[in-house]
Structure formats: C-alpha cells, structure tokens
Amino acid sequence: MTQLSSTITNPSLKAWHTYVIGAQMLFVAFGALVLIPIITGLDPSIALFTAGLGTIVFTFITKGKVPVFLASSFAFVAPIQQSLAQFGYGATFCGMASVGIVYAILSAVILWRGINAVQKVLPAIVTGPVIMVIGLGLTPIASDMAVSFDSSGVFNGQAAILSAVTAGVAIAIALSKRRLLNLLPIIIAAGVGYFISIAFGVVDYTAVVEAPWIQLPWTSASEAGRFEMPVWSIGAILIFLPVAIVPAVEHVGDVLAIQSVTKQNYLENPGLHRTILGDGIATALAGLFGGPPNTTYSEVTGAVALTKAFSVTYMRIGAIVSILLAFSGKLSALLGTVPVPVMGGVMVIVFGMIAAVGLNTIVRAKVDFEDPKNYIVFAVIMVVGVGKLTWTFGGIELGGVGLAAILGIILNQILPSRPAAAADEK
C-alpha cells in the first residue's frame, strides 16, 4: 500500500482509496491504449475491453503475483495496417491472435532451457535494429497526419499548428521534473491539442450526441466497418509472427523492471515462462475479440514505483474499469472526434522514441561494431525494414519488419564473428 493509505484508518475510505489507485493505473496507460486502435483503424472501445480482459487473464496465469497492466502494443501498428490493406479485418484478427503462438513457444523454451536460450537467438544486434525499424517505418504516417486533417500529407496551416503544439506539450511533459507528469505525456499532450482544436472549431460532436450511453463495442464497430468474425489467413499470420519477437523480448525487460521496483524475483516465482505465457494468451484473446495485440506497459511500472502500489488488486481494478468503459457508446464516439493532426503531433514524438529505444538497446548491450558480422546484420535489418522490401512465396507476401526480423535472426546465426584481436590486426 502507499504511504498515504497506511495512515488511513476508516475502512470505507481505505477501500475508496484502493479503487482510485486502481483506476489511476488505467489512466496512465489510457493515452497509448486508445491511440493505437485509432491510428490503425481498429475500434478503441474493443481495445479497452481486450486490455482489461488481457490484464485479468494475465494476473490469474501468473498466480496474482506480478503487478503489470497489459494494453495495445505499438510494435504491431505497421503489421495491422499492412494486413488490413491486404486481407481485411477478419484475416487481420486471425493474424493478431496468432501472435500468442510465438509467446507460447518462447514460454516452453524458457521452461525447458532457460532465458539464455532465447537471448542467444534474439541478441541486441537483432532486436535493437528491429525496434528501430518499427519506429522509423511509421514516420511517414506521423508526418502526413501532422500537417493535414485527412492524413493526406497536403499541408494545412491549422493542422501544422495543432500538431506542433501537441508535440511541444508532449516534449515539455516528458522533460518535466515532476515524476507524476512524466507518466502522462501522451494523454496530457492530446488533451491540450484537443482543447485547442475546439477553439479552432474543427471538432464535430454530432456522432457523440447521436451515440447511446451504453452499447456493445462490437455492435458500433460492425456498424462502422471495423469488426467482423476472424477468418483463417496464413498470409496475415506471416505478417504478424516475425514481429512478435520484439514485444516478447521487451516483455523480459519489463518483468525485470517491475521486479526491481517491488523487490520480488518474478523470474523465479511465478517464473518468466508464466509471465510470457500470460502475455501471449492475453494477446491471442485480444485478436479473437478484435483488439490490438497486448504488451506490458512500462508507464504503469513507473506509476507502481511512484505510488508504491505493489498489489495486483490495483491492476485488476484498472482492468475492470477498462472493461466497463468499453461499453460506453458516448466514450467511443468522443474518441473518434480527436482531430488527425493532434494524433500526428503525438506520433511524431512516440514513433521517434521507439526508434531511440532500439538504438539504446544496442548501446546498453555494448554491441561490437568492430565485428563486420554486426555491421552486416544491422545493415540488412535496417534496409529491408525501412525500405519495406517484400518477398512473395506462392502468393504469400512477407516484407517490412517481419522479413527484416527473420533475415536478421538467420544472418546472426550463420555468419562467423571476427574475434576482437583479429579486427584490431586488420
């Protein structure tokens, strides 16, 4: 419990405080949680539902020991957009659900051989560039949305002002010395940009007025053309599976981060194999219900560190609130009124930060670029990924981040390393 709650003696007030802290965990994750479905064409209300459902499932699989919140993953923005364009919603939901297969395999490998076996296949020289490709590959989308109201990229002065102010607020919040503000750059920046949009007169509330207070998210999504039943598609599956290695590896880092905050050893109890399996099952369920793949949120880990709210109960409360909000037709319609350049301003920062995280992964691992092998692996991943090189096999396309990840893994395994001494002699 927090220091504040430990001083409260009134049982009802203490319970109220517990609910507030739980809802706060959702609030911290809310910005990114709803931004991802909005920019990919999925339904934000369904994303709220699947985030809540996934978090609850995760807490039970991990025996109620690991206080993390699961929600929409930025790693899958490009695959979702590519799959929707090629195969439609039903096939895309199948592809998203298949991500759970990768997590299940990694869980089994970790249980059998330990985490070192995974790290040998997915070292920093592979995962770092792949993360960079994810961020850099999305930059054209951010640029187009930042200067136009229809994502066309045709310059509009009002749109540019909105995106610039939104991005500026996000930067200011991220650099703030107040730790609580540091956890909320996306939602605060989007909020400021939204209020300025109202002043500009570019927000239309017609859909909000007409929307019912309570509505099944799948009903409204179907009416908007954003939901249909999952259908089998090997093409969509191949788009998603290679990308799944990135959030799976990041999951390990998030577990290490939360255990350093709570001073517990989650790698041993309940075990890393359980945490990654819980994440995978949550992601599979999300795809089947029409929500984006889930991932653990480092923002929530920061909130846990700040509030000392170590109990999984808080995460379950946040998850329940998320599920309840999913059934609000008014909220779903309101999220749809956020102007494109406001989202573009946020994405300029977010997508750039994703690329920076990939670079930091390489730096922290002290990857030796005196070894030509590492140069080659890095170069191939970057060019194939950013250039969106595509290979076609029997009518099935594999390209972009997925192809880059596969080639990176293969090259890292088959190319010989040059010993440091040999490099020096050269």
UniProtKB/TrEMBL annotation:
Pfam families assigned to the protein according to its UniProt record, in alphabetical order: Xan_ur_permease
Protein's UniProt keywords contain Cytoplasm: no
Keywords: Membrane, Transmembrane, Transmembrane helix, Transport
Subcellular locations according to the entry: Membrane
Predominant subcellular localization, coarse grouping: membrane
Keyword Phosphoprotein: no
Top-rank taxon, per record: Bacteria
Membrane topology according to the record: Multi-pass membrane protein
Molecular function as annotated in GO: xanthine transmembrane transporter activity
Membrane-spanning intervals of the chain: 20-39, 45-61, 90-112, 124-143, 155-176, 183-209, 229-249, 342-363, 375-393, 399-416
One cellular component (GO) term of this entry: plasma membrane
InterPro entries attached to this UniProt entry: NCS2, Xan_ur_permease
Annotated NCBIfam families: ncs2
Record-stated family: Belongs to the nucleobase:cation symporter-2 (NCS2) (TC 2.A.40) family.
UniProt name for this protein: Uracil permease
Source species of the chain: Pelagicoccus albus
